[in-house]
Structures are given as structure tokens and as C-alpha cells.
Design goal:
CATH superfamily of the largest domain: Calcium-transporting ATPase, transmembrane domain
Mean pLDDT: 87
Distance between the termini: 60 Å
Number of strands: 19
Low-confidence stretches: none
CATH class of the largest domain: Mainly Alpha
Shape: elongated
Structural class: alpha/beta
């Protein structure tokens, strides 16, 4: 499964089909790992239920209050419907969708392609990032730096100078680099280029400098690399007969070796030589190099394929450099300030992982916890969860299949986990994580299909930028809620006053809908498109227990801003009534010009206060006087639409007929302005106190 034959002949033995193949097992893992609801989806479900119950409960309660005080049934029914309508934020779903879509668009500009909209906000609430090293934290631009040959370290850049004085053992070393690979030669712009693993490309380029006369050996067999074997072997037909060339991690190659190549001679592999190679590997890894061991064997006739990798001769080591991306240290620091834990999960040597981690600022302590794949297999899930409590932890020599176990352990600790991956075997972990991030450049189709986000540049810094955008989405939805719930109070108070104080109804149901689905809609949507605040990544991720609709939001919207808007609306209503000669207890028919003007004044006052309120809701803590007025063009268009719509409702004949309004004089607008100014100053004072005292 997964093999494409492009030419030649071959025989295949089928021993498994369908779900019994390795691809089938991966597919089963991917299918059984159900994608959980994102934190935002859970919040929207919870919020919708809460608002529905609250609105219905208040409506039913006041319906019975109306019956007790003797209101006619239909008047009481309309009153209850008005209460319910006033408490439902009709623009919630379109605003959430727009906020997610705008966040997705901004993420795409920062090289993070969103495949599922809810993932936009989920990434913003991430508390842990499990990231690969090669290509994500580093540039994936391999080059041979150091070689350990014939018992001595040499600079790989000096190879070309010594190409004419190579011993037989040296040639075997470079033949391994040249022939033990799975690269493909492609034609591009009239030139031949090698495509495949950047590590193998670097090794071939190194070997070509030492062996300008490239040996034309035919390949007889291959034992492929996998994450368990950690090595690759190819059998080549040479002038000396069949020769097996092997490269891989030293810990998997060394046990297979019986001798060591020293120039043109062979020496037995003694414990002293083993220790010397291990120490050399450790010193190279400490320098941040990826270390590979090379070995070979002249294969006797009649040797079976299962016994090819026996009695090998160790020819040397090569250290490859993969420099960290220059923007990664700043991104790691940003994660640290934002309270996000970054865990490196790599297949490289522990010392290499530690050296790179120190270089990019991922680890600061002298002795962070390092767990290898072998250790991971020996410890229980409970021990793994305890190990994950360490402030700094790295995973090295880890197979792709072990990522899923790490992800599950973190999720059991109630973390919101983002994990990167590029291979087929990464698919289950990508699907199981809260946010699966596939590599767009080096990733497989299977990995991209299982992920919720695809990095177009494979760059860790792009993940951090996307997290910032994700946090902005949650913040913007909360801004929208504050704005829209604030207007619910001046919509609700008129109905309460109508029932409790027996005054003319200050606001009709159609006028409420004119606010909720008309004038408020575009400014609310514009709040969903606000750019991230400058200090957004200086705060820790929001706790899992923090609700979208929390106590500070309720107090601010309902008891602070909402009450000031209600006061302005009712004051404008009575200003017109008393100015027209109305006295308390006097009833007015619904078509009376004075009543129509009074309800228009109430509606217009709400709109004026909401114009001010939309600027107040742009930030939770910063002063409204510090905001860039032209920072969100959509907001300005929304306010222009809001003002234009209320003028049409107030001063056109069709607006008057549909919404039950009448033109109001200039002095009504001037009467409302001090209320708007008071709300602006009061909110600025409240934010100032919060910034100072917390």
C-alpha cells in the first residue's frame, strides 16, 4: 500500500489488505480519534442555552406579572414577546462567523492556512505546543560540518582538498554517503537536481566533493529506514562484489559492527573503540549537530536478506548542521511571555535536541528533563503525566507513533494542545490534538488532511503569529457581546416601566428589531474584525473554566453601560412627552403624534449611546482616548450605516410608517449628547481604575 511502480518488473507478495495493512491501521486510528468540539463551540452552545433560558424565563415571569396587574391578554402577550426579543442577541452567530473568517484571513496572510473555522479560536487558547525540530524550529537546510574518520575529527569543508589522497576506508565512507540514499534525480530548467530528504542531499553533495568520479554501482536490494530501526541499508554491486552500505543513528548501527575502519586497515570493535565513538557522537551532538554513523560490509555469496546487517565495519561519523530559523528565538520568547509551554518532540539525538533548545532559548535551566523514545516505552501513563509537570522538557529519539501518547497525556492534564507533524504516521496525533498543524512544504497529503491548520512555510514563528490572531478572535467576540448586551438593557427597561408604572410603551417591538437587526448589526460585526491588541501576547492563555459570558462582562454590560443607556433613552422619552404637555397617568393612542415622537426619541437616544459604546468596547482595559479612530475602517463604515439608517427611520415617510416613528427636532438630539459624554468619561474612569488597581 502506498507504493507506485514507475517502471521495470517485480513480484509482490500480498499478506494483508484493507484495514489490515499499515495504512489501514493508521486510517482506523484517524477515524476512531473523534475530533472534539472546540472550546469556542462549547462556549457558544453554553451561551446560547443560557441566553435562551434567561430570555424565556424573564418573558414568562413578566407575562404572569402582567396578568396579575390586569393587562389585557394580547397586550400582555406582546409585552412578553418584547421582553424575550430584547434579551436575545440576534447578531451573535453572524458575528462569530465573521470573526472566525476574518481571523482565518489574517492567519493566511501570516502563512497559516485554516481548514476548519473553529480552529481559529482554538489555536488562540492553546496552552502547549508540541513541535518538531527539523524544518520547524530549524531551516531544514542541511550541510555536512564535521566528519570523524580514521579516529580523528576533520572539517567537512576540507574534503575536496584531500580527495586525491583518500585511503580505501575513506572511500568506503564517502561511498556510503553517496549510495545509501533514497533520493530522486529530477530535471529542472535543463539542470538535474536531487529531491528528497535534505539530510541525504547534503550527504551526497559532501560525497561528490570527495569522489568526483562517481562510481556507477547498481543497486541489488534495500532495507528501508523506519522510526524503529533508525537506519537505512542498500546493497550495491561493486567491483569487489556485493557491498552493503548502512547509515543511521549510532546506537542502532554500533551493535551490528564487529570491526572499525582505520584508513586502509581494519581493527576489532573493542569496548574502548565503542566508548570513543559514543563520546565523539556526544560531543558533536552537544554542538547542535545531527550525527549519523556509516558502516559497510562485503557480503559473502549465499547470505540471506535477513542476515545482511551483520558483521558490519564502522567507517566513521558525520555531523550535519541545520541552523535554527533566525525568527524562532523571538517567537519562543513571545510564547514564554504569553504563558504557552513549548515542548520539542524530535527524532534526533538528545544532545542535539538540547543544544538547539539552548540556542533558541527554549531551555534556560542547566538540566532540563529529556525523555527518549526508549524511556517513553518503559514508563507508565501516570509517570509520563508527572514528567510533563517539569517546567522544561524535551523528547528525543521519539517515533511518530509516540506523539499521540504525549498528546493524550497532555490532554488528560486539561491542557489545550497544538501539535505539529508532517508524516503519514503523524496523522493520528494530528487528529487527536486540539489543534493539528501540518507542514505545507514537507508534509504528506495524509498529514495535511488530518490537520486543522496547514503551515505554508513550515515555520514555528507562523504558529505563534496564528495564536495571536486566535486570541484576538475570542477577545473580539467578547467585545461584540459587551456591545450587543449593553443595548438589551435600554430595550428591556421601557417594557418594565410600561408594566410597573403604567406609562405609554416607550419602545415597540419593531423598534427593538430595528436596533438589533439594523443599526447595531454592522458596528457589531466590525468589532469582530478588530486587529489584535498590542499586549495580547503578554497575558497567559485563558483558563478552560473561563466563560465567554463571565461576571465582569455581565456587570459591565448590564449594570454599568446598559443602565446609562437606559437612563438616556427614558430621559429622552419623557423629555418629549413632558415637552408636549403630557402628564403622568394620561394615556396616549399609538398613532398620536406626540407618542410617535416620544418613542422616536427613545429609539434615537439608544442609537446615539450605541455609537459611543462601540468605541468603548474596542478594548477591555485601555482608555478610549488612546484608540486609533481610523484603525478599523469597517467600524467607521458601520457607524456611518447606523447613523444613516436611524435618520431614514426618523425622517422618511416609509420609515415612519414601518417603525411607528415621527421626525424629532434638533433639541432632542442635543438633549441626549450630555448622556453620551457622561458614559464616555465614566467608562474611561473605570478603565483607568482597573489599569491602576487591577
Amino acid at each position: 500500500a502506498g507504493t507506485s511502480m514507475v517502471g521495470g518488473r517485480g513480484s509482490a507478495l500480498v499478506f494483508a489488505t484493507g484495514m489490515h495493512t499499515e495504512f489501514g491501521k493508521i486510517a482506523r486510528l484517524t477515524q476512531t480519534a473523534e475530533a472534539p468540539l472546540s472550546p469556542l463551540q462549547k462556549e457558544i452552545v453554553s451561551l446560547s442555552r443560557m441566553i435562551a433560558l434567561l430570555a424565556a424565563g424573564i418573558g414568562v415571569f413578566f407575562f404572569f406579572i402582567g396578568r396579575l396587574i390586569g393587562l389585557p391578554f394580547w397586550a400582555n402577550f406582546i409585552f412578553a414577546i418584547g421582553i424575550i426579543v430584547a434579551n436575545v442577541p440576534e447578531g451573535l452567530l453572524p458575528t462569530v462567523t465573521l470573526a472566525l473568517a476574518m481571523g482565518s484571513q489574517r492567519m493566511a496572510k501570516r502563512n497559516a492556512l485554516i481548514r476548519h473555522l473553529p480552529a481559529v479560536e482554538t489555536l488562540g487558547s492553546a496552552t502547549v505546543i508540541c513541535t518538531d525540530k527539523t524544518g520547524t524550529l530549524t531551516e531544514n537546510r542541511m550541510s555536512a560540518k564535521v566528519i570523524y574518520l580514521a579516529g580523528r575529527l576533520e572539517d567537512a569543508d576540507q574534503i575536496e582538498i584531500k580527495k586525491d589522497s583518500l585511503s580505501e576506508g575513506d572511500r568506503r565512507f564517502f561511498e556510503t554517503a553517496l549510495l545509501c540514499q533514497t533520493l530522486r534525480e529530477m530535471g529542472k530548467s535543463g539542470q538535474k537536481t536531487l529531491t528528497g530528504d535534505p539530510t541525504e542531499v547534503a550527504l551526497v553533495q559532501m560525497a561528490e566533493k570527495a569522489l568526483p568520479d562517481k562510481p556507477a554501482f547498481s543497486r541489488l536490494d534495500e532495507i528501508p529506514f523506519d522510526s524503529d530501526r533508525k537506519r537505512l541499508s542498500t546493497l550495491q554491486q561493486t567491483q569487489d562484489g556485493p557491498v552493503l552500505y548502512t547509515k543511521g543513528a549510532l546506537e542502532t548501527v554500533l551493535p551490528l559492527c564487529r570491526s572499525v575502519q582505520l584508513g586502509g586497515t581494519l581493527q576489532p570493535m573493542t569496548p574502548e573503540w565503542k566508548e570513543r565513538f559514543l563520546q565523539t557522537e556526544a560531543s558533536m551532538a552537544d554542538a547542535g549537530l545531527r550525527v549519523l554513523a556509516f558502516a559497510h560490509r562485503i557480503v559473502p555469496k549465499g547470505t540471506g536478506s535477513s542476515r545482511l546487517e551483520e558483521d558490519l565495519t564502522l567507517t566513521g561519523l558525520v555531523g550535519l548542521e541545520d541552523p535554527p530559523r533566525p525568527e524562532v528565538p523571538a517567537a519562543i520568547l513571545k510564547c514564554r511571555e504569553a504563558g504557552i509551554k513549548v515542548i520539542m518532540v524530535t527524532g534526533d539525538h538528545p544532545h542535539t535536541a538540547l543544544a538547539i533548545a539552548k540556542e533558541i532559548g527554549l531551555t534556560r535551566s542547566p538540566s532540563p528533563v529529556i525523555l527518549t523514545g526508549d524511556q517513553l516505552r518503559r514508563i507508565s501513563d501516570t509517570q509520563l503525566q508527572i514528567a510533563l509537570d517539569a517546567p522544561e522538557i524535551l523528547f528525543a529519539r521519539v517515533g511518530a507513533d509516540q506523539k499521540m501518547r504525549i498528546v493524550n497525556a497532555l490532554k488528560r492534564k486539561k491542557e489545550i494542545v497544538a501539535v505539529t507533524g508532517d508524516g503519514v504516521n503523524d496523522a493520528p496525533a494530528l487528529k487527536q490534538a486540539d489543534i493539528g498543524i501540518a507542514m505545507g512544504v514537507t508534509g504528506t497529503d495524509v498529514a495535511r488532511e488530518a490537520a486543522t491548520i496547514v503551515l505554508m512555510d513550515d515555520n514555528f514563528a507562523s504558529i505563534v503569529s496564528a495564536i495571536e490572531e486566535g486570541r484576538a478572535v475570542f477577545s473580539n467576540i467578547r467585545k461584540f457581546l459587551t456591545y450587543i448586551l449593553t443595548s438589551n438593557v435600554p430595550e428591556l427597561i421601557p417594557y418594565l416601566a410600561f408594566v410597573l408604572f403604567r406609562i405609554p410603551l416607550p419602545l415597540t417591538i419593531l423598534q427593538i428589531l430595528a436596533v438589533d437587526l439594523g443599526t447595531d448589526m454592522l458596528p457589531a460585526l466590525a468589532l469582530g474584525a478588530e486587529a489584535p491588541e498590542p499586549d495580547l501576547m503578554r497575558h497567559p492563555p485563558r483558563p478552560r473554566t473561563e466563560r465567554l459570558w463571565n461576571r465582569p462582562l455581565i456587570v459591565r454590560a448590564y449594570l454599568f453601560l446598559g443602565m446609562m443607556e437606559a437612563a438616556a433613552a427614558m430621559a429622552a422619552f419623557f423629555f418629549v412627552l413632558y415637552g408636549g404637555g403630557w402628564r403622568y397617568g394620561q394615556s396616549l393612542p399609538s398613532h398620536d403624534p406626540l407618542y410617535l415622537q416620544a418613542t422616536t426619541a427613545c429609539l434615537s437616544a439608544i442609537i446615539v449611546m450605541q455609537v459611543v459604546n462601540v468605541f468603548l468596547c474596542r478594548t477591555e482595559r485601555d482608555s478610549p482616548f488612546r484608540e486609533r479612530i481610523f484603525g478599523n475602517p469597517l467600524l467607521l463604515w458601520g457607524i456611518a450605516f447606523e447613523i444613516g439608517l436611524i435618520l431614514l427611520i426618523d425622517y422618511t415617510s416609509w420609515g415612519n410608517r414601518i417603525f411607528g416613528t415621527a421626525p424629532i427636532p434638533l433639541d432632542v438630539w442635543l438633549f441626549v449628547l450630555p448622556f453620551a459624554l457622561t458614559m464616555l468619561l465614566a467608562e474611561a474612569l473605570r478603565k483607568g481604575l482597573i489599569r491602576r488597581f487591577g
